[in-house]
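B., you asked whether I could sanity-check this one before it goes into the benchmark set. Here's the sequence:
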Amino acid sequence: MSNESPTLVKGEGPVTLSPSGSTPSQGSPLSPTSSSKGPELPDELLQAGWARCWSKRENRPYYFNRFTNQSLWEMPVLGQHDVISDPLGLNAAPVEAADCNLGNGQRKRRASEEQGAEAISFKRTKVEPTTPISPSTPGAKPWSSAPDDKQSQSTTPITPSTPGGKPWSAAPDDKQNQSTPTVAPGPSPAPYRPAVVYWDLEIPTNAVIRERPPDPQLPPHPEVELQRAQLVTKLRQHYLELCLQREGIDPPRESFNRWLLERKVIDKGHDPLLPSDCDPVISPSMFREVMNDIPIRLSRIKYKEEARRQLFKYAEAAKKMIDSRNASPDSRKVVKWNAEDTMNWLRRDHSASKEDYMDRLEHLRQQCGPHVTAVAKDSVEGICSKIYHISAEYSRRLGHAHAALMKEYNLSERCEAPDLQDRLVYCYPARLAHPSPTQPRVELHFENEVACLRFKGEMVKINRGHFSKLELLYRYSCIDDTRFEKFLSRVWCLIKRYQVMFGSGVNEGTGLQGALPVAVFEALNKQFGVSFECFASPLNCYFKQFCSAFPDTDGFFGSRGPFLSFRPASGSFEANPPFCEELMDAMVTHFEDLLNSSTEPLSFIIFVPEWRDPVTPALVRMEGSPFLRHQLSISAYEHEYRSGSQHICK
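And here's what the prediction gave me:
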């Protein structure tokens, strides 16, 4: 950014015409008691914060913006630049030459502007349209509206598929209300430009793959996605109830989310989210996390009293559990003796330090842990098995519902495999083998800097910066919807899918979708030629080429599909996998297989947590891999991740 002071743009704004078409005279100002009412503001200006006020000092009307605190004598015009975020007007649409005479175009100036006595300068105010215009809007240029478009007065949200409506328009009719004064053509509204951008979609790919067939998954539809969201929510509730009823504990934090990730590594089912065909049925990830919280969940300890309290709770819970379960006499004897010995020690010694309590807790876990695990094993395996079989049943229901919907639109579930040539090509977004059915209405409106999309009462939110990013990705990647008629429904399905996958709790799932800082991506691209992300989503990607979990919803926005089924022949890649041990282990296997089979330049820069207690198999395998070239460890508080909920941060 420049360190110069803000420069005011000279010139005169467009002239506002009266309803009869004549220019209003400045010599006969309107008065509060005048019988001739002033022109009413269009809804676009009202939503942008403008209001028509009356100046008692000047005895004439003026216009005030409650968002920017700007005051104008003349009716504002959409499309002028924002003097706060763009003082030089670099991003503003070009303004036609106007007469330098002040005349009727004189604006009301602030006190700070009165100090500039050398030249008369005027600020142009930029008012963003309440709904951005897509690059493919009929009759409009990309990112701007046609200069001869008439204003719309309705504020009712409209979808691209609304009959008689244009994509992204605010009303189904282009004709203006007759009682509204005519406004002369002004500059075209500029696109919404985020103040800070966390991506670079202009970097081309260097990833080369062999031509591949389209994905056989059925195309997304809001009706099916809404049903999937309801079933996943019910499955989470079943998991909560089973943990409480059988083990008396709350589900371990993020354990359900990691279960979804771990199951999808080996799942051969047809549902993109719910596992239905896995071997083994018992999830090692879910079993391990639930078992770690038995008999109680151990939290991080900061103070001595917390350590004492946690030691007492563990001893009491272990004794209670061994008494209520079908344990062997030896196990019952060992656990009860150690628990009672710990309680007696706590009653005798009140001067122990935090370290003493921690050592005693570790000793108690070593003595009682194997016996507690043995009596709880069958119950925990029952929880894992029950959740999996419920998931398989829900997946079957969703498959029948999706097939019925395709049949309703006369679309076949079967598709012929296209003829493919055995050739190397630059990677391209995932394509679906089935045509997409007609999409239902999805409403769109903006609340300050947040875009809200609603379908049948279910609302998803995304900030305006990431909403404009999705529009760019859609324009780059989608080939079956050049008129953006299905854009809103596909955005709703995309956001809903990730919202359901990572849960609706506060900050839930954000750690599984954390992204590297922008400076790291810039360095990777500049120093190593990285242009591809192996684990990302349209919501947190930096490059426009990436792999993600869901080819059906993400392919329209540039995803190349799941990375474990993506086989590049050459290129430079960045991998920041979700912190799931099974997924990271499968990632290492896939990387080594690709490096073994390729004779072209191929590299992967991997970011994983340094889990040493206990050490993760993926980390051990990477450190011993013959393909390892360099390893760097960055300690805590010296690195950072971008939030996984960046798309809803304001």
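One thing to flag: The longest strand covers residues 568-575. Otherwise nothing jumped out at me.
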